[in-house]
Every structure is written in C-alpha cells, then in structure tokens.
C-alpha cells in the first residue's frame, strides 16, 4: 500500500453542477474525490460556478463571464451536465448547451477522450450479446472545438423573398486535423497501437483533407497500425464487432454520435466518463451523458460516469494516477458487490439510488485503504 505523499498539495477545482441530475451526481463525484484525496494526502479546493440553465435563470447567460474566468484560473474543471426541455424554446445563444460549447472553446479543449470499457459485471446490461461486448476497451478521440459545431457561416438566414435557410459549415484546417491526429497517435502508442480514423471522405471534401493529413501524420508513428473507415461503416462495425477497435479518431459531429453509440455497448451511458484537453491550461472532466431532466431530483441517476470522470481528472490534470486507480477499483468493487442504480439493474442485484451508490463507493475506498 502506498504511503500518502509527504508534500500535501492543494488543487483548485471548478465544480459546475449545471442542470437536471447534475447537482446530485456532482455531490457524489465530489464526495468520492474528497475521500480519495484524504487517503492519498492531497487536498481539493472546490469553487462552484454557474452554468447552463441554472446560470441562465440567475444571470440571463448560460455561461457567465465569471464562470469562464474561474474555470481558466483553476487546475481542472469538473462538470456534471447541462440542459432541460424547458429551455428548448430559448434563442440558440441562450440555450444551456451553448455554455458547454463556449467553455470548450474558451478553454481551447480541442481533444475529447471518451474511453469505453466494459465492466465484466455489467455484460448482461448491454443490448448486445455477451461475447460481443466482453472485453471491449476502446477510446473515442473526438475533435471538440472545430468542424460543423463551430464552422462559419452558420445561422438561419432569410432571403429577399422571405424564405428561410438553415446553414452550418463543416470545416477543418490542416492544423486542426494535425493536432488532434497527434493526440490520437500518442494515445494509441500507450495502448494497443491501433488507430482507426473515421470520416466521410467518399462524399465530403472536408473529410478528404482530414484523411490526407492523418496519413501524413501517420508517417511519424510507424509503430501504430492505421486504418480508415467511413462514418456509416464505422457505426455498423461498432455494433457488429466492437473489439476490433482500440483508438477511434474522428471529428466533432461524428465523434458525438459514435461516442453515444459506443457508450451503449457498456450497458448504460451512465457509466461513461470523458476528458477534454487543450495544449495547455486546465482540462475539463464530465460524463458523456446529459442532464436527464426526466429523472432529476428523484435519486435515480447513476453517478458512476461522474465518478469515473473524476478519476480521469486525477490522472490527466492532477498527476495523481494512484488516486485514479483507487477510484476505478472502488467502482469495480461496488459492482462486484452487486449494487446497481436503476439504469444497470438486473434481477438478483441490490437496487440503490444515486446517493447510496456514492456511499458504497466511499465505503469501498476505505476498505481498500484498510487492506
Ligand atoms: C456531448 C453532448 C454535447 C455535444 C451537447 C450537449 C452540446 O451531446 O458532449 O456529447 O453535442 O457535444
Ligand atoms: Mg453527445
């Protein structure tokens, strides 16, 4: 068992709970992180910021300037979820989702890592056959600050005759492709050295350039086996035989879609964490799932994706890999003990709510410590 480090460090973390189930899963995430910090001899200094609908209600802005500033000045940003049906009719710039895009852009977080790992205890929770999902271990590397999410021109335009057109632009510069490709190749190097780049180069020019640049960058990584798939085929391969994938590299929109699909392989999107990184500055850690307003405040949410996002934060931004391992082991232990939130429940297991799941995780951490 490792001893706590002698120099106690304090990290400044911005906590953005947001909307829907955000506050309840954030509470669990923070409790687990505080528990592991105490065990390992470092401290987390939390500062809470407003984001999404919650921020809009109080300030009229889903991403107040103070929140972005607070985030920029912290060691890492820990976010839960934003969005609610009740904001669907707001103008685009006031919608909670805009806050997320603003935060990603404002922090320069161009690389979104979404690891998809199947816990053996949950194989039965997947809609696919056990032999298809058992052993899945892949990462989606999604470009996060470019592509059709940000390309100009964008908007809804009215012509002289009064007819309207909705416009978005899918655009990638060489430099944008190069830097995200390098992130994916470096990651593949630390894993099973397989990289699959996903595009739509049979139809889209933006994808032709994407593919060309990925091939150029590949020359620096001869030890990584590179393949290319079109997005439609990739979506199919992901449910046909997901274990063929190690690292999947793709653009913003394709990555958004593929990562939800990949999440479901694990049985529940409530299990999937993500890390968003820039070339410098704080990273952002958030679950892949959304704010689930339909179950908000009912203690039904699965906090595990939030908790595992905390583990990624420890590993990538705070350089506390042992603490990250401990959290991941605690999740495995609690699943092995049979505790399940409703989204991953199956017969014979013990049904728990969000809060109780958190208590079990903290208990599992102290059991590890005692061993
Ligand atoms: C995600 C979400 C966001 C996205 C939304 C909420 C803006 O779906 O993080 O995958 O599309 O990027
Ligand atoms: Mg998404």
Textual characterization of the structure:
- With 371 residues, the chain is an alpha/beta fold.
- It folds into 2 domains: 1-117 and 268-371, Isopropylmalate Dehydrogenase (3-Layer(aba) Sandwich); 127-266, Isopropylmalate Dehydrogenase (3-Layer(aba) Sandwich), CATH 3.40.718.
- The chain has helices at 22-40, 52-59, 65-72, 96-106, 130-133, 174-189, 205-218, 231-240, 252-265, 304-316, 321-336, 354-370; strands at 10-18, 43-48, 76-81, 111-117, 137-143, 155-158, 164-167, 194-199, 225-230, 247-250, 273-277, 283-287, 339-340, 350-351.
- The chain has a 10-stranded mixed sheet, sandwiched between helices. It has a two-stranded antiparallel ribbon with strand order 6-7. A two-stranded parallel sheet has the order 13-14.
- A hairpin with a 5-residue loop joins strand 6 (155-158) and strand 7.
- Helix 10 runs antiparallel to helix 11 (321-336).
- The longest helix has 19 residues, at 22-40.
- The radius of gyration is 21 Å and the shape is globular.
- The N and C termini lie close together (8 Å).
- The model has no long low-confidence stretch (mean pLDDT 95).
- The protein binds 3-isopropylmalic acid and magnesium ion.
- Magnesium ion binds at residues 256, 260.
**Biggest β-sheet description:** 10 strands, mixed
Structural class: alpha/beta
Count of DSSP E strands? 14
Lateral arrangement of strands in the main beta sheet = 2-1-3-12-11-4-5-10-8-9
CATH architecture of the largest domain: 3-Layer(aba) Sandwich
What binds here, in terms of ligands, is: 3-isopropylmalic acid, magnesium ion
Return the average pLDDT rounded to an integer. Answer: 95
Strand residue content: 15-25%
Can you tell me the residue ranges where pLDDT is under 50 for at least 5 consecutive residues? Answer: none
| CATH fold-level topology of the largest domain | Isopropylmalate Dehydrogenase
Query: Span from first to last CA?
Result: 8 Å
Number of domains: 2
Number of helices: 12
Name of the CATH first level of the largest domain: Alpha Beta
Which superfamily, in CATH terms, is the homologous superfamily of the largest domain? Answer: Isopropylmalate Dehydrogenase
Helix percentage: 40-55%
Write the element-wise H/E pattern from the N-terminal end onward: EHEHHEHEHEEEHEHEHEHEEHHEEH
């Amino acid at each position: 068992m490792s001893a706590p480090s002698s120099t106690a460090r304090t990290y400044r973390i911005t906590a953005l709970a947001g909307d829907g189930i955000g506050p309840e899963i954030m509470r669990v995430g923070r409790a687990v992180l505080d528990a592991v910090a105490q065990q390992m001899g470092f401290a987390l200094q939390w500062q809470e910021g407003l984001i999404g609908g919650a921020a809009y209600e109080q300030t009229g802005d889903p991403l107040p300037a103070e929140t972005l500033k607070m985030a920029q000045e912290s060691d890492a940003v820990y976010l839960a979820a934003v969005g609610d049906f009740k904001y669907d009719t707001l103008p685009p710039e006031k919608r909670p989702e805009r806050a997320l895009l603003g935060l990603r852009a404002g922090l320069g977080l161009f690389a979104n890592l979404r690891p998809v790992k199947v816990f053996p205890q949950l194989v039965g929770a997947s809609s696919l056959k056990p032999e298809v999902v058992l052993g899945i271990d892949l990462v989606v590397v999604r470009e996060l600050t470019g592509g059709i999410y940000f390309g100009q021109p964008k908007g809804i335009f009215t012509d002289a005759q009064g007819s309207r057109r909705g416009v978005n632009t899918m655009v990638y510069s060489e430099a944008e492709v190069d830097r995200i490709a390098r992130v994916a190749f470096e990651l593949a190097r630390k894993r099973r050295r397989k990289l699959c780049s996903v595009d739509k180069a049979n139809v889209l020019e933006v994808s032709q350039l994407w593919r060309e640049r990925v091939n150029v960058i590949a020359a620096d990584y001869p030890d990584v086996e590179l393949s290319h798939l079109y997005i439609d085929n990739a979506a199919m391969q992901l449910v046909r035989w997901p274990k063929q994938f190690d690292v999947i590299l793709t653009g913003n929109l394709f990555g958004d879609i593929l990562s939800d699909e990949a999440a479901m392989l694990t049985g529940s999107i409530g299990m999937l964490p993500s890390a968003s990184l820039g070339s410098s500055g704080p990273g952002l850690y958030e679950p892949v799932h959304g704010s689930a307003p339909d179950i908000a405040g009912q203690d039904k949410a699965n906090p595990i994706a939030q908790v595992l996002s905390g583990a990624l934060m420890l590993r990538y931004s705070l350089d506390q890999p042992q603490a990250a391992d401990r959290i991941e082991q605690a999740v495995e232990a609690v699943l092995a003990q049979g505790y399940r939130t409703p989204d991953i429940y199956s017969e014979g297991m013990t049904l728990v709510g969000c809060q109780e799941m958190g208590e079990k995780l903290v208990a599992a951490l102290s059991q590890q410590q005692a061993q």
